[in-house]
Amino acid sequence: MEHNKVDTELQDSYDDQQKWVLDSSTDSRGKIPLRSRTGAWRAALFIIGIEFSERLSYFGISTNLVVYLTTILHQDLKMAVKNANYWSGVTALMPLLGGFIADAYLGRYATVLLATSVYLMGLILLTLSWFIPGLKPCHENMCVEPRKAHEIAFFIAIYLIAIGTGGHKPSLESFGADQFEDGHSQERKMKMSYFNWWNAGLCAGIFTAVTVIVYVEDRIGWGVAGIILTIVMATSFIIFLIGKPFYRYRAPSGSPLTPMLQVFVAAIAKRHLSCPSDSSFLHELTKEEYTKGRLLSSSKNLKFLDKAAVIEDQNENTTTAEKQSTWRLATVTKVEEVKLLINMIPIWFFTLAFGVCATQSGTLFIKQAMIMERQIIGTNFIVPPASLFSLVALSIIITVTIYERVLVPLLIRATGNERGISILQRIGTGMVFSLIAMIIAALVEKKRLDYAKEHHMSKTMTLSAIWLAPQFIVLGIADAFTLVGLQEYFYDQVPDSMRSLGIAFYLSVLGAASFANNLLIVVSDHLAEEISGKGWFGKDLNSSRLDRFYWMLAALTGANMCFFVMVAMKYTYKSVQPSLAVVADRGDDDNVETVTGTNNTSKFT
Predict the structure, then answer these.
(1) What is the reported pTM?
(2) pLDDT tens by residue, 25-48
(3) Distance from C-alpha of 365 to C-alpha of 169, rounded to nearest angstrom
(4) Which residues cross the membrane (predicted)?
(5) Could you report the per-residue pLDDT of 387-396, keeping only the tens digit for each?
(6) By CB neighbour count within 10 A (0-12 exposed, 13-18 middle, 19+ buried), where does 464 fall?
């Protein structure tokens, strides 16, 4: 009888999980979401749609930014690359603020609405700066010095877009991932595919930007391109609002900094106590009491922090322990969340070198294309330099598709890992390709310089831009592995209440890498001038030595990979306590840890 009662309870729990979404999310009316009517792909497609238009706008501006700064604002190469990197850096670091606001105060959906409005303001101002007489770049078609008013309007517009991106990117991507419940086996598998197809949609926007939009900018006018971008963004925003009844929402959980600080204070206050060998003696809430996410299992690293969960008087009952101040007693889950964030620091740091390599495709690679032969043989059509970035987008789309449809099923059978390979293995694989891309870039640039010297008397004889294709393609393959892996890593491994910030951490890698790239340019140029009397960056590419800069990046990437592998081999993944409903879904205890989405030890090697 007792056995039948337990089976009935498990079956009821399983039935509830199939019908309702029981992960603390709500529907548009604030009620528990019905699985058949909300979330999953029916909601994610609306979200991927607005991401397409945002990437269309962003890359329509960013890939041609160096061209704009050198041709419209008449900046030299060094200044233009610096300004482009500063803007890219700010754009990628702003999500840290936007993600914090989304997780702590506004919620992801509301943050997307606010950020998209700011983004649209930037696009409108950028467009108007080409049509309002007082804001136009010049009085005439040709000018040596642009108007100061246009320069001011231009920078205000692109930094409004940077602010909009800061709220839009982390909130939208994590909001999309929230549409899939981790505790449901089918939706968990969908979520693993979500990041791949998110990037496919993202790359479709990039490809359209660097072909259609860049062509319009170069051949028709920047003002017309601005009109197109504004209309597409406004239309996708309306479509996103139409999807409101299908979304699943999560309430903001307050500042994530306070619980972190409480763990440190409690651990320091009880630093003289010893930790019990059995983690079950540490303080933790029950699954019924914990309603803000999933409970985490205790890990063996950073044991000092476990002291925050030590109950000082083991004779106290559970009720008395729960009444203690959270500044004196933390739960195991809160302690583990702090550990997760600390463990991320070295991973974040050792992916910066990859980020520096990735920034070259939108800056120096494009500048190289500007002075190379881009006319299609047999036609009068000249490919815009920024359109070569389409090779990166196409490479990502093709690589992600092959990875998702071919490699993952094969790897699952070979490794038994539900992802095929671990997240950190995927990130490391991309780093190898980024190293290869820098080596190719160095060899191609040396060939271009030699060709330019041989034909220096002829202004019409330049090396074909097709020579740049391999470095763009290989860097795209690297992005498909590392950037997608970083998105999944930072979303999956952060505490459940900080997932917008998790995406912001991923974006901050690219932001910090842009600033690091600027620093490397300044330092390497200065050192080269001190050693040989001539810097690596001149007023134009033919007086520069980009090949040596690329070799330096290849060397830094190779050294960085060694440290990354060492850190990854010791990494401890998030370990989530299983729920009864999920166990019932799979039917065996051996798969409990896999069901919860992560293993407790690194599988990098």
Answers:
(1) 0.75
(2) 787 788 888 887 887 888 888 888
(3) 25
(4) 86-106, 113-132, 193-216, 222-242, 345-366, 378-403, 423-444, 465-484, 504-528, 549-569
(5) 888 888 889 8
(6) middle
